[in-house]
Amino acid sequence: MSLTMTAEQLGITDTAYTYYCDDALMFLRKAKESGNPFDLLITDLSFEPDHREQRLSGGADLIRAAKALQPTLKVLVFSVENRFIPVGRLFTELGIDAYVCKARHDAKNLKQAIEEISKGMRYMPPQLREVIRKKKAHDFTPLDIAIISQLSSGTLQKNIPAYLEANNITPSKLSSVEKRLKIMKDELGFSKNEQLVAYCKDNGLI
What we know:
Blueprint: H1 2-9, H2 21-33, E1 40-43, H3 59-69, E2 74-79, H4 84-93, E3 98-101, H5 106-118, H6 126-134, H7 142-152, H8 160-166, H9 174-188, H10 193-202
Parallel strand pairs: 1-2, 2-3
Helix pairs in contact: 1-5, 2-3, 7-9, 7-10
């Protein structure tokens, strides 16, 4: 309803809608082949599975496929996810142009997002911008994620080097593990590994 209302307010009439990611990619492909490609893709991130088998399992897969097909396509994600790290990754890793959280006043944010996209700008919801502004977010490396994942699964810190070495993750020495943990805790303002693990779980990192 929010999308329909927003499109009407903006005078957008040439639209296509589908419940399935595979169909959405087909629409994009046919439109491009006809010489009249879509300007904007709006998608959720997750969908309830049903009897129909899908090659694309969710919004992230659809975005990747759509960008490979049409690199200049603008993408707006409209979803319930409100954790700033996963949302931030949509911008940095998938190259989306806007993110709007599903909420009570999402129609207003959708309108603003589409207007900003049309001007060549990117849009992030105000509440997430504020979280990012206030929170000192650490730039987690693959090594960091591996260390935290092992702590989360109950592996003792002194035993993590063996896991890293067995999986060809470098550097794998205990001193390197201790150094990475200290850097992460210092930057995020934590004193205990448990706080770091909880933070990463809460923000969708592990």
